[in-house]
Amino acid sequence: MKVYLSIFSMFLLGFISTTSFSQEKTEETPQYGWKNAFVGGINATQTSFDNWSQGGENSFAWQASINFNFTNVQEKTSWANSGKFTYGQTKSGDAETRKSVDEIKFESVLTYKMNIYINPFIAVTGETQIGPGYKYNPKEKISNFLDPGYFRESMGIGYQPTEILKTRIGAALKQTVTRNYPKPYADDPDTEDKVEKTKNEVGAESVTDVNWKITENTLLTSKLELFSNLKAFDEIDVNWDTILMIKISQYFNVNFNVKLFYDKDISKKRQLKQALALGLTYNFL
Fold first, then answer.
1. Which residue, among 200, 111, 195, 194, has the nearest Cα to 152 in the 3D structure?
2. 78: closest CA among 109, 51, 47, 103?
3. In 3D, which of 152, 153, 147, 151 has the Cα closest to residue 185?
4. Is residue 146 within a helix (H) or strand (E), and if so which, with residue range?
5. Counting beta carbons within 10 angstroms of the beta carbon of residue 150, is it exposed (0 to 12), middle (13 to 18) or buried (19 or more)?
6. Chain center to CA of 248
7. SS3 state of residue 16
8. Which architecture does CATH list for 37-49+56-283?
9. Where does the pLDDT of residue 27 fall: very low under 50, low under 70, confident under 90, or very high at 90 and above?
10. Beta strand 198-215 with 118-128: parallel, antiparallel or unpaired?
11. Residue whose C-alpha is closest to residue 125's, from 172, 64, 188
12. What is the dihedral of CA 193, 195, 198, 199, to 10 degrees?
C-alpha cells in the first residue's frame, strides 16, 4: 500500500505543479524535423591495499551506459524513439566478478496532434538484459538475454501540459517471453502439467515522464510505468526509474539513480535498486 500511496502522491504533486508551469509558457515558433540526442558515459572506481594495517579488500567496479532520443516533430504528428543501454560489473577481493547493473530498454511513441494538450497515441516498448544473471551461495543462473523479455503495445490518450511533464494512458497488451527460465516470469502456477514460456496479458497502461532541468547543470528525469491486467488492485505492475544528474564539468558528472519495481508474479514484495556514480559522459549528437 505504501508503494501506491507514493505513486498517488507523485501524480498529485505533478498535476499541481503543471498549473504553475503552464502559466509560464510563452508562444514560440514551432520547429519541425528530427531532434536527436545520443549520450554515452562510463564510470569506474578502484581500490587496492598493500600491507595496509587498517585492513580492507581490493575492489574494482565499472559501469557503461548509452541513452538516445530521436524525435521527428511535424505539424500534426510526433514520433519519439528513445532507448537505454546500461551494463556494469564489480569485483571485491578474491570473489569472482559479478554483474552490478544490466538493462536494455526501447520505447517508440507515435502521437497525433489534435489540440495543444490532449492527443491520441500508439506506443511500443521492449525491455530485457544484455548478459546472464545469477544468484549466489550457491551460484545459479536465473536469467539471460530475452529470458525474460517484456514487450507492450498500447494506444490511448496523451496529455502534455508543459515541456517538463507528459503522461499517457490507454489500453495495452503485454507479452513476457522466456526460453530456459519460465519460472517465475511466464509460467502459470495453476497449470501443473504444463510449463508456459510465454505469457500474454490484456489490460491498461499508464506512463508518466518528468524531464526537469532544475538548474543549468542539474537534470531530473523520472519515468513511472504502470500496467494492470484488471484482475486485482494489488496486481498492478510498477516500474519507476528516476535519475538525478549533476554536471561538474564538460565531460564529468554525478548520477544518482533509484529504481523501484513491483510485479506480484515475480515477488510479492517491491524491489528497489539505488546507484550513485561519478564518471565520464560525452554527447555524440
1. 200
2. 109
3. 147
4. none
5. buried
6. 24
7. helix
8. Beta Barrel (2.40)
9. low
10. unpaired
11. 172
12. 50
Distance CA 272, CA 168 (A): 24
Within 8 A by CB and 6+ apart from 198, the residues are: 175, 176, 177, 178, 186
* pLDDT tens readout for residues 180-222: 999 989 998 888 889 999 999 999 999 999 999 999 999 999 9
What residues form DSSP beta bridges with 161?
Answer: none
Supply 237's cell numbers: 505492475
Residue-wise pLDDT for 34-58, tens only, equals 999 998 989 888 889 888 888 888 9
CB-side neighbour CA atoms (13 Å) of 282: 4
What is the helix (H) or strand (E) element at residue 208, kind and residue range? strand 198-215
Domain residue spans in the chain?
A: 37-49+56-283
Instruction: List phi, psi (to 5°) of 26.
Output: -115, 155
| Whole-number Å distance between alpha carbons of 134 and 139 | 7
Q: How many CB atoms lie within 10 A of CB 162?
A: 18
Cell of 67: 541513452
Question: Residue 10 — very low, low, confident or very high, per pLDDT cuts 50/70/90?
Answer: very low
Residue 11 scores a pLDDT above 70: no
- The pTM score is 0.82
Alpha helices in the chain (DSSP H): 2-23
Joined grid coordinates for residue 27: 508562444
Cell numbers standing for residue 235: 496486481
